[in-house]
Amino acid sequence: MNQAADKALDIRKYIELLIRRRYLFTVVAMLVMSGAVVVSYALEPKYEAKSIVFIEQNVITDIIKGIAITPSLEAKIKVIKESMLRREMLLGVIRDLDMDLSVRNELDLELLIKELREKTIIQMDARRDLFVISYRNASPTLARDYVNTLVRKYIEENTSSKREESTLATRFLADQIETFKKRIDVAEGVINS
User: Residue 102 carries which DSSP code?
Assistant: First the structure.
């Protein structure tokens, strides 16, 4: 009970202080608001573009889930980041968006690549099997085009590598079938004779 009375007295004491110093409080509040307005106009506007990429669950991943060790969320993010922010990938995006027109020498190009790596944020949501790529820039069209081009190039590269893996797997299986067929033919020949 005593603490509640003390709190009520403290609040009343602050209100009385505020009423006595209302002109000082008003001036300070106006200065703070004016400063906030000036700073907001002085800051360069930043636009953020985001793209959400869904990860399709692989059948093999589901099969080996209980057998093999599945990589952690941090490991998955690291692999995706390393893949998307590789120098070759970023150079392709820079060329596609004609960002290399303003580059005068190799040092400027390296600085541009470093800036893109730092400003590109990749986050993963494992529960919904998706990852989000975001990028901030003063130009909204550049931010949008950069994110879209980066995602498109990543998906194209990922799809072509999957297609190549599938072709190699099909070729391997066809060779194995041919080998087993020859073995079966030899075994049938031995059985018949």
Answer: G
